[in-house]
Structure formats: C-alpha cells, structure tokens
Amino acid sequence: MPKVKDIVEIIESRAPLEYMLEFDCAGLNVGDMQSVVMGILIAQNVTYSTIEECAQAGANLLITHHPCVFGEEPDEYMQSLVAKAKERGLILYSCHTNLDCCKDGLNDFVANKLGMTSVSVIDGCARCGDIKPARLSDLAEQVGKALDDGCVKYVGDGEKMIRKVALCTGAGARDEALVLFAKDNGVDCIIGGESKLSIALMAKDLGVGVIDVGHFTSEIACIEIFKEWLKDYAYMTKVSKTDLDPYKPIK
User: Fold this and answer.
1) Which range of residues forms the domain containing residue 174?
2) CATH of the domain at 22
3) 90 with 18, same domain?
4) Reported pTM
5) Partners of 196 in beta bridges
6) At what angle do helices 222-229 and 4-14 cross, to 10 degrees?
7) Final residue of a domain: which of 98, 113, 131?
8) pLDDT of the residue at 251
C-alpha cells in the first residue's frame, strides 16, 4: 500500500507548493506523510459530509482543492473540521492555488473547456486568450452551459462583442488588478467568481465586461485533474458524492 508521501509526490510533481500564493495553506493540513493510505476520497471541499463520506468509504486520505485551514487563527468552522477529521483518523491534503497556477491546472483546464485559444499566463494564476466572437450576454450563457452553472450573471453592455477574455477561476472576478489588466491590454471581458459591487462598478465604468461564475462551478474541474494525476491509484480512489454546489438557481 502507498504512503501519503507517495501520493503527495505525484500531485506536487505537477503542482509544486512553490506555486502556492502567499495567503494560501495548501499541502498537508492534517496527518502524517508516513501514514499508509488505505483509500482516497477526492473532493473540492472539506466539509462534515466529505469527512464522514471518506470514513464510511474506508478511506483515510481526503484530497481536496480548498484547504480547511487559512491563516494563523482558523475560524470556528475550520477548527471544527480539523477536529472532526482527527476524530475520524483522517489525513487531509489540499492542492489549492498551486493547482490554479500550474501548467495544465485549473485555469488551463477551464480555458480549454471554454474554447479559449492563444492562451497566455497573466500573473501565475489568471489566463488571457482569444475566444470565438460573441455578444457578452450570449457568451455569459455559453459559459454557464459549459460549466453547468445556472447562476451566472454579467456586468456590462450585453450587446458588446467579446473576442478576448481573461480568466481566473474561483474568486478571480473580485481582483481589481485583473480588471485594470483587461482595460490596459485590450481584453473585452474577464471571467471569474465572487465579483463584488465595487469591482463591478469599476469594470462597468472602464468598459470591461465581467462574467461572474460560481466559485464552486468554476473549480469543480479539480476532480477531473486529480483523477487523471492519480490514475495509477484508481483502484483505491473514489470521487465524493456529497460535495455539491451549495448555491441553487431560482429558475
């Protein structure tokens, strides 16, 4: 049976921790690298349900995109997740912003899924590229279908033709620097999640379109990436059935 370090070596050979952004806490969050892996569950998030699902499946390694700890003083919910994982004897490992930034990681995967071409790296994580020309409103609909996201919204003139986009999965649409990059580099629209009002207003004033997608839906492709990277351990790997998008459309 493999040890945790054997699994981690495979992941970090593709998404080295050196690519992790400064605020991040990716890597081994709970457990020991020398522990023997009895089974693996992959999910986007650590939650009470994925912890219990992992234990019920007879697995002891939960690999997620999002870590369950952030900063020096994790909040009460995060602390309870750590305590629950320890109580169930689980190992928690996360591959977060290093997965966002690495080659063939999340942003590259989603860029390909959206049909972007001539893709280049903006700042490590974000990607810039061309896209089949479409009106902003139509492109927002296309993005929603590609990501299976019924809650997509957009900022800007829906009739504006979009030819060049900047993409940053997760909370990318709340990045002021990405909007300014778009304005200065002929990018018609940014695609990302969690835009806030001040950023939306700024983008509108600057003539930059925004397609706001769900954080969950823009990053659930992490599952496909983990499955591919860990294909040699497919016999002991399961995909979470309980880690679902918490947001539901009203129609």
Assistant:
1) 103-216
2) 3.40.1390.30
3) yes
4) 0.95
5) none
6) 120
7) 98
8) 74
Both 74 and 120 in one domain: the answer is: no
Q: Is 86 inside any structural domain?
A: yes
SS3 (DSSP) at 16:
coil
Residue 94 lies in a domain: yes
Closest CA to 165 of 146, 147, 179: 179
- pLDDT, one tens digit per residue, over 163-196 is 999 999 999 999 999 999 999 999 999 999 999 9
Strand bridging mode 153-155 / 209-213: antiparallel
Token duo for residue 240: 């979470």
52 CA to centre of own chain? 22
For residues 61 and 113, membership in a common domain is answered with: no
Band (pLDDT 50/70/90 cuts) for residue 209 is very high
Instruction: Enumerate the β-bridge partners of residue 211.
Output: 154, 191
Cα(191)–Cα(28) distance, integer angstroms: 30
Give the chain's domain count: 2
Which residue is associated with the tokens 């998404």? 15
